[in-house]
Amino acid sequence: MPPILEVKRLQKRYGKFDALRGLDLILSGPGVYGFLGPNGAGKTTTIKLIAGLLNPTAGSMKIAGIDVATDPVGAHRQLGIMMETPAFYNQLTGRENLQLFARLCGLNDGSSVDRLLARVGLKSKSDDRVASYSRGMRQRLGLAAALLGDPRLVILDEPMNGLDPAGIVEMREWLAQMARQEGRAVLMSSHQMGEMERICDSFTIINRGAVVASGAAAELTQSRTTVSVRVPDSETAANVLRAMPGISGVEIVGSDRLRAESGECSTADVNRCLVNHNIDVLEITTSTESLEEIFFRLVGRSSDVA
Amino acid sequence: MWREVCRVMIAEWLRVRKSRAMAAGLVTYLAVVAMFYLTYHLLVRRSFTGIPTGFYLSGSVLSAAVTSLEFAMTLIVAFSVAREFSAGTIQQVWVRPLSRMSWLSGKLLTSVVVLKVWWVLTLLFVLVVAGVQLGFSDLMEKEYLIHSAGSLWWALLLTVALTTLALAAEIGIVAVCALIIGNPGGTIAVAVIARFILQLASNWDLLRPLILPTYVTAPLGQFIAMSKGLPLPESWGHLTRTCLIGSLVWILAGWLWASWIVKRREVLN
Questions:
Q1: Are B22 and B73 in contact (CB under 8 A)?
Q2: Cα–Cα distance between B29 and B37 in angstroms, integer?
Q3: Beta-carbon count within 10 A of A69 CB
Q4: In angstroms, rounded to a whole number, what is the distance separating the alpha carbons of residues A166 and A189?
Q5: Interchain pair B96, A83: CB under 8 A
Q6: Residue B47: which pLDDT band, with cuts at 50, 70 and 90?
Q7: B139 backbone dihedrals φ, ψ, rounded to 5°
Q8: Rounded to a whole number, what is the largest CA-CA distance in chain A?
Q9: A86, B91: Cβ pair inside 8 Å?
Q10: Scanning every residue of chain A, which has its alpha carbon at the shortest distance from the alpha carbon of B106?
């Protein structure tokens, strides 16, 4: 089976500005994939390129093995997409908007429209004009529009924007359902790190048009495990740990406390090493880096756009 | 491809039938046509020399109405194509499984159908009121037959067909402007200014055959001359050939240009 999405060495240049510089992205199967990056990193450009709304300068994109460049119609059959602020025909109702998009997808029966409206919680408001919809309701309608045609790949650009807390919880449940019960791959970009960490199985972090980190959530967050130790003499213990293979970044944080990156070593290995050097270990704890910490470590804290 | 085009036309109809602007445009257009009719009716009664017939009144009103129809066409195409870009709905449409050319063809064919309906409504209106007022009799001058009613009906039919074809070509060209400019206001402004410049340019005999609006107005001018019993500027055969070839060349050029633009058009915002 080909990957659901395979992006290779994707480049996009606007004049002299390189928005994307050889981006690689693979979604091998169903799951929720987080797509992170600061403002201007190239997330929306990547999404628009996959959607066929922009033309790439170089590189290739395949959706379920179908090349977007050579067979855009076939590729779009596998794709559902919701942009950051989904636009609709304001003079039409929510139902009429979905019926219009369903027609464009070649869907003639109204049952899929009714089913999707019920799924996103808009059934009671489906006959109201979209002009009267709140931002959260537009997001819900956008999700329903993305799911028309039962796509294997769903791309959501900032789907949580404008949703109230209850809506965010519902969105979380929908995403889990799409990935785990319906077997779709969901690529989602968002700035809400906590939500992303809670929802996504895997992450790709981009900065200045290139991937800076990619992998399963557990791999990324556990790649940098910090061990904190309380000992009678932190200087002596620090020297012992500095000599221990696999340990790095040893830092003394007090006369009786130090911390280090344990890397491949387990807590038990660190404890055994200190005890073997006749150092009493009074307390030992480990902590993993949160997604937010990883993000800031990789892309920096600057609020300037990339 | 035609199945995709039909899908787009059905979707476009779902959008258009709820468009208040379209309904308001049709009412305004019909009011303008009625105004033209009253003006020409008064003109015929007060200062017409010769024998007024329903053919002359119909041709005159159609000739005046076609300019309004061209403006209405610009509005319809600008709001149908460019509005998708300015409102952002193009992002919802171009991610669906259909080719961009099918999308554009569906949009333009819907515009052609809408305008054709408007044009037919205009024709029916003027035929009914002009027929009631003046009747569609042979064109006679002192017992000499200048044109029979049969030949005038055929000429009117040919005029309407040639004008419709030229209007379809104009729709394609305005659509290209809409694709490039991406907002309705800019599209309308450019189309109206271009139409005005072309109208001025059509005064030069050398340029006239190259100018698309010539093929809209020339058959109507010929028909009005015929309905008044004036000498015809050129034969109907020559006019038909010129208008057919000119309109088809413009349709082909518009099609090629549009397909080139639509494939390269990016959605930046």
A1: no
A2: 12
A3: 13
A4: 20
A5: no
A6: low
A7: -90, 110
A8: 78
A9: yes
A10: A104
Question: For the whole model, what pTM was predicted?
Answer: 0.83
To test the contact with chain A by mutation, choose from B20, B84, B92, B269 the residue with the greatest count of A C-beta atoms within 10 A, namely B92
Number of alpha carbons in the 13 Å side-chain half-sphere of residue A104: 34
Which two three-digit tokens encode residue B263?
Answer: 């494939």
Closest CA to B5 of B128, B90, B109, B149: B109
A→B contacts (Cβ < 8 Å), by residue, are 48, 51-55, 72-74, 76-77, 79-81, 83, 85-92, 96, 99-101, 103-106, 145, 149
| Chain B residues within 8 A of A48 when measuring between CB atoms | 267
Classified as helix, coil or strand, B12 is helix
Token pair 């785990």 is at which residue?
A180
* Per-residue pLDDT at B241 exceeds 90: yes
Strands (E), chain B: 139-141, 144-147
Q: What is the mean pLDDT of each run of 10 residues along chain A (306 residues)?
A: 90 89 90 88 91 92 91 91 90 92 85 89 89 89 92 90 84 87 90 82 87 79 78 89 85 86 81 89 83 74 52
The phi, psi pair for A6, rounded to 5°, reads: -135, 110
C-alpha distance from residue B46 to each of A57, B42, B43 (Å): 68, 6, 5
Q: Which among B10, B14, B96 has CB closest to A96?
A: B14
Taking CB atoms and an 8 Å cutoff, what residues of chain A touch B19? 91
- Look at A55 and B264 and tell me if their CB atoms are within 8 Å: yes
Query: How far is Cα B76 from Cα B70, in angstroms, rounded to an integer?
Result: 10
First to last CA, chain A: 36
How does pLDDT run across B184-213, given as a tens digit for each residue?
899 999 999 998 898 888 888 888 878 888
CB contact under 8 A, B94 and A85: no
| Contact call for B11 and A92, based on CB within 8 A | no
Question: Contact B227/B55 with Cβ under 8 angstroms?
Answer: yes
> Residue A206 is inside which H or E element, if any?
strand A202-207
State pLDDT tens for residues B72-118: 888 888 888 999 999 999 999 999 999 999 999 999 999 888 888 88
Of B15, B90, B268, the CB nearest to A92: B15
Q: Do B92 and A74 touch (CB under 8 A)?
A: no
